[in-house]
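We store chain and fold; example below:
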Amino acid sequence: MNISTISNEWILFLAVILSSIATFITRVTPFYMIKNYKPSPWLNAIQKHMGLMIMVILVCYALKDTRLNAYPYGASEAMAVLIAILAHLKFKNTLVSIIVSTLFYMFFIRVFKI
């Protein structure tokens, strides 16, 4: 059979099938290779504290453009960070802390214009 006799639809179909097989193999291989792997205590500690690590990264990114030398001197950002810390200490839930502090920050900058 000559390649010129194969229609474009079949070539497209074969490309989709080969891509799906390649994707499946690349997704399954890591699970097959580490099925008997026991995580180290270091990896368990990172997994346990990942939410807090993400919070720190988000706070640093959010505060990078804060102007402390002009009005309002970062007041709304400071209050939002304080609320995030308090919410995280109370609820121990990263997502709740992010949502609550974001809502308060939006409230501060929209209502009080600070």
